[in-house]
Design a protein that fits this description.
The complex is a heterodimer of chains A (about 180) and B (about 400). Chain A has four helices and seven strands. Chain A is of the alpha/beta class and about 180 residues long. Chain A has a five-stranded mixed beta sheet with strand order 1-2-5-4-3, covered by helices on one side. In chain A, strands 6-7 form a two-stranded parallel sheet. Chain B is an alpha+beta fold. Chain B is about 45% helix and about 10% strand. In chain B, strands 1-2-3 form a three-stranded antiparallel beta sheet. Classes of the chains: A alpha/beta (about 180), B alpha+beta (about 400).
Amino acid sequence: MDRRLATLLQEKFGERLLTPVRQRYDESEIRVALADATDTLRTLHDDPTLRFEMLIDLCGVDTGEEMQVVYHLSSSTSGDWLRVIVPGLDRAAPRIASATFMWPGAEWMEREAYDMFGIIFEGNRDLRRIYMPDDYRSFPLRKDFYLADDASRSPAAGVRNMERAGTPANATAATVLRKSPGV
Amino acid sequence: MTQQMRPSLDDPRVAIPAESTWYEPAPIPQTERQAEFLTLREGEMFVNMGPQHPSTHGVLRVIIKVNGEKVVDLDPVLGYLHRGVEKLCENADYHQAICYTDPLEYVASLFCEAAPVAAFEKLMDVEVPLRAQYIRVLTMELNRIASHTLFQGWMALDLGGITPILWAFIERDEIVDMLAALTGQKLLYNYYRIGGVNGDLNHEFMSRLGTWMSRAAAQIDSNLALINENEIFVRRTRGLGVLDAKTALKMGVTGPNLRASGVPYDLRRDRPYLVYPELEFDVPTRDEGDSLARYLVRMDEIKQSIRIIDQVLHEMPDGPVMAKLPRLLRPRPGRAFGAVEGPRGVYGTYAISDGTDQPFRMRIHDPSFVHLQLVGPLTKGNLIADTMAVMASLDPVMGGVDK
């Protein structure tokens, strides 16, 4: 683990970080508010001491209560990895600024997050469905989207049968919805 | 008899209206970029490539806007192979999720297993036995060679050469059979487990590997000589689809495509996992960034992989191949990103645990998905036939792109 990176991030961003820098194995993690997301990414990319030039991954996360956008950055010069979590997107109408101003390669990953979660990336000039057909109406990776033949999630069948013995047989979708306090 | 006037193609009565180039209702533009793409200027028309086109390496449809023989713009249409693997993984337990990720890239499926396994092991704080780490490196490098030899054959095939793919399949089939002897499966191995591998190396695998290793280097060299000195191949790929280092970084390119643009970034060296820090190998790079460089970097990597396999066979210790784990895995709530350097770039898995036996969210990052974005920018202004050459040199696999 790179302690130097943790102190560097702490002094660069200071009170902008929602939680202290977390480090586990070779990953560092910061959380920033929605309003600070663009500035933070720009600083991480441009600052000569940080230089996180590569966007390895961009994805959406639905925690059941809110949406998140998660960026995995890597530095091609120092080899450090950083996860930037932007929590607190409204689940009813998730919106965030696009990262394509800095990484044009984020365009398709944002299209995918839009397709799967309905997150609107403002500034992405090609934000339309990428996998699902154009006339598709749902967002499949949202937690309230259930698979039609999902045996494992149903209270009465599947591999979790034994563990779910306490679940009433007439449980509605809302009671089975998993909500994670930890993420 | 009066002479019949032959109709001119400029005659408005015989001119084909632009909208009739669509054999289905013309799409309604939804974005600024799509509207720009769908606007035809003087002399332009749409050509549809795929979804059943052999050079698309899977099921991909590309709408190409052409002016004469030149590509003006193109728009890939994805989703023909979309299976919703991420959603399926959220509804499977940690062991089951691994076999869902297997068919993503069917030519390099061990890497698609290795990334989620790495993420899960971080979530669960599992220490992998040393022998299992060596076995993983050995099998991954074999799979990398199989993938790169297949790439070599494919690329030549896309450029019109038939012989190289037949030669490439000899090497590739030998590796596939070898891994089948080890894992019981020809393509979708499902060999890695959380905490180790499924079964130790067996006699048939080792004897086949020994025989293959004794002639592999010479055989691969002769395969390379078949193409590398072919004037048509070299002339068609040199200087085609040049990707400079700065654009490559901005586009999120990884793997051999990035190294062909002169950025020596390799996870095996820059973010070491398994036993790679103890092994000696070079990271081949090229500065040109064209299709030929992308091809040559991969061919250099085959040689490095053989070098790694040689070291692994000499240094592999004895011992267990699985860590002791409970059958039902329930990691503590947390997040982990596992990444491995595959034959196409960084395969990553971002796993979130909520304390149950199923991943709360599992994100699969596939390098082919990112690389396919480049086909548009790299082919603008080239001939239609060069689209296939550029696409082949980027080496996307649609199973991974569509997830």
